[in-house]
Amino acid sequence: MSEQRITDLSEPRLVSNWSAATGSWLPAVILLLATIAVWEAAVRIFSISAFVVPAPSEIAQSLVAQWGTLMQATLVTAGEILFGFLVSVVVGIAIALVIVRFDWLGRALYPLVVLFQNVPKVALAPIFILWFGYGLAPKIGLILVIAFFPVTLSMLAGMQSVDRSLLSLMNSVGASPTQILFRIRVPHSLPNLMAGTKIAATLSVIGAIVGEFAGASDGLGYVIQFASTQLDTALVFAALLLVSVLGIAFYYAAEILERIVVPWAPKFSQA
Predict the structure, then answer these.
(1) CB–CB of 23/33 below 8 Å?
(2) Cα dist. 128→93, 95, 140, 145, 210 in Å?
(3) Distance between CA atoms of 12 and 8, rounded to whole angstroms?
(4) Where is the ABC transmembrane type-1 domain (predicted)?
(5) What is the per-residue pLDDT across 20-56, written as a single tens digit (0 to 9) for each?
(6) pTM value?
């Protein structure tokens, strides 16, 4: 009898969780399908050339026809994104720690970081190609200069928003600046840091594609450029679709990591 009662109590909870899960992504799926339907109908009705705007069905055909090439390019770009993202997070955290720990160095370094962030990153791509060649290094460098800033800024915001009374308490018991940094400031900054990594994840995708535009022999950016020279607009859209999928995948991977590392952090709610 008790087992039956537990089962009866758990079933409404499972139904409620399933309803909440489907309610969160179902509107997006409906909007996506409606957009595809309108797009396909508009191309057919107005006889728009595939050279200008291909129909979704033509993009799907190109995706299937070039599946092997596109998957190889996707793996190359995904590797660049992952490596560049990890380097960006490490460098961004290191810069934030240095700025907070060493006050005099932080006052000198922070304005330079902000100034460097205002440099057009696209203009750096050919310079990195000149310095590092056509291999992996220029892509990683470009991802780094694009994606490290939100990590640094988010972590700084978290570390500098610690309650002053808590800092005074730590000082009163003789804690060193390094102890305060790693025992108080860093744990307090984790929700902000994880939010910054989600931004960095999406920017890393942009950095990888820009780097491949500047000079590459493989990757989705290379496929887009090559398809453009061949006037194969459907293949361009197919590659862009895969770029978008990569961006979504890396963003939600960062969000899953956030839920693991800082489960107490507030989450976006549509309610």
Answers:
(1) no
(2) 23, 21, 10, 11, 12
(3) 7
(4) 70-254
(5) 445 567 787 888 889 889 988 988 888 877 788 888 8
(6) 0.83
